């Protein structure tokens, strides 16, 4: 679905390469997780995929088509961005989600758009929220609305930048399970960054370890090792297996 090849980017002509030959591949319905220190280039990579920043060289293809040549509307039908929180003024949940249909309806929503919104609200168990003002909801609820709005775009890929950044643990779980549901039930791909390595292992199918603007390691859960984490974060961890699942423990000092 998404193929990124040798992507290079810098913010200013004489500045450093912030993306330095990035290669990444994500298949339909896969959940891909970018892992890397602050400043390693994760947000910048998202911005190039979303068309907010133009790369200096390299290619981004979506189902073989050049994403860099698509206009906003064409791109919006393939890729939706889920921001950390929505600031949309005093709109109802219903209208906020309907905004996700803009690339379909232009300026006036039709019956089809309303049906799409109603289906999403029902699937996400948000019907009771439809008339409520988004600004009055909790952080986790707003994040869920942000996902609903992105889904209204009927994208093939959702891009999240640190989806659980300012959420408490219950809301974190809510958002992660919603992300998983969307990927599994609807076959929508997800590309996200996460700070919490255990959350990453819970959610991800593919892992991309980023350092200094490069993806140094890419692969399934098997590539998440103590050595790769040390190389990426300069942090010692220990990985243990509990009930067949890898669990990452901070510290790493062996008894
Ligand atoms: P991450 O998301 O992994 O924390 P970013 O993509 O935000 O990393 O940042 C990568 C590098 O690009 C950092 O060195 C950061 O300082 C720099 N950077 C980010 N945004 C800008 C900008 N608008 N102008 C110049 N440099 C930037």
Strand and helix layout:
Layout: E1 2-9, E2 19-26, E3 31-35, H1 42-49, E4 57-62, E5 65-66, H2 72-76, E6 79-82, H3 93-99, H4 102-105, H5 111-123, H6 139-152, E7 157-160, H7 169-186, E8 189-193, H8 197-203, E9 206-211, E10 214-219, H9 226-233, E11 237-242, E12 245-250
Parallel strand pairs: 3-8, 3-9, 6-7, 7-8
Antiparallel strand pairs: 1-2, 1-4, 4-5, 9-10, 11-12
The chain binds adenosine-5'-diphosphate (ADP).
Residues 11, 18, 36, 38-44 line the site of adenosine-5'-diphosphate.
Bound molecules: adenosine-5'-diphosphate
Distance between the termini: 45 Å
Structural class by sheet pairing and helices:
alpha/beta
Strand order of the largest sheet: 6-7-8-3-9-10
Main beta sheet strand tally, sense and closure: 6 strands, mixed
Rg calculated over all Cα atoms:
19 Å
- Uncertain ranges: none
Output the helix-strand order.
EEEHEEHEHHHHEHEHEEHEE
Instruction: Identify the overall geometry.
Output: globular
Quickly count the helices.
Answer: 9
User: What percentage of residues falls in helices of 4 or more residues?
Assistant: 25-40%
| Mean residue pLDDT | 90
Which range does the strand content fall in?
25-35%
How many beta-strand elements?
A: 12
Give a description of the structure.
By secondary structure, the protein is α/β, with parallel strands linked by helices. It has nine helices and twelve strands. It has helices at about 40-50, 70-75, 95-100, 100-105, 110-125, 140-150, 170-185, 195-205, 225-235; strands at about 1-10, 20-25, 30-35, 55-60, 65, 80, 155-160, 190-195, 205-210, 215-220, 235-240, 245-250. The strands form three sheets. The chain has a six-stranded mixed β-sheet, with helices on both faces. A four-stranded antiparallel β-sheet has the order 2-1-4-5, covered by helices on one side. The protein has a two-stranded antiparallel sheet with strand order 11-12. The longest helix has 18 residues, at about 170-185. Bound molecules: adenosine-5'-diphosphate.
């Amino acid at each position: 679905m998404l193929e990124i090849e040798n992507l290079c980017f810098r913010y200013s002509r004489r500045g450093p390469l912030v993306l330095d030959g990035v290669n990444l591949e994500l298949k339909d319905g896969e959940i891909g997780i970018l892992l890397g220190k602050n400043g390693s280039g994760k947000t910048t990579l998202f911005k190039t995929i979303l068309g907010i920043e133009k790369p200096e060289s390299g290619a981004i293809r979506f189902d073989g088509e050049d994403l860099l040549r698509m206009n906003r509307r064409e791109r919006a039908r393939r890729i939706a961005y889920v921001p950390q929180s929505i600031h949309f003024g005093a709109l109802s949940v219903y209208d906020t989600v309907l905004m996700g249909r803009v690339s379909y309806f232009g300026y006036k929503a039709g019956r089809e758009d309303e049906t799409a919104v109603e289906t999403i609200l029902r699937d996400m168990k948000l019907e009771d929220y439809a008339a409520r003002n988004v600004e009055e909801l909790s952080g986790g609820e707003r994040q869920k609305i942000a996902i609903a709005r992105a889904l209204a775009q009927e994208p093939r890929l959702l891009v999240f930048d640190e989806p659980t950044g300012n959420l408490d643990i219950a809301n974190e779980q809510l958002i992660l399970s919603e992300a998983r549901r969307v990927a599994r039930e609807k076959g929508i791909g997800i590309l996200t960054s996460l700070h919490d390595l255990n959350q990453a292992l819970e959610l991800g199918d593919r892992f991309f370890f980023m350092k200094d603007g490069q993806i140094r390691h890419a692969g399934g859960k098997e590539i998440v090792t103590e050595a790769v984490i040390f190389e990426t974060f300069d942090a010692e961890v220990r990985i243990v297996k509990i009930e067949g699942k890898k669990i990452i423990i901070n510290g790493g000092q062996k008894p």
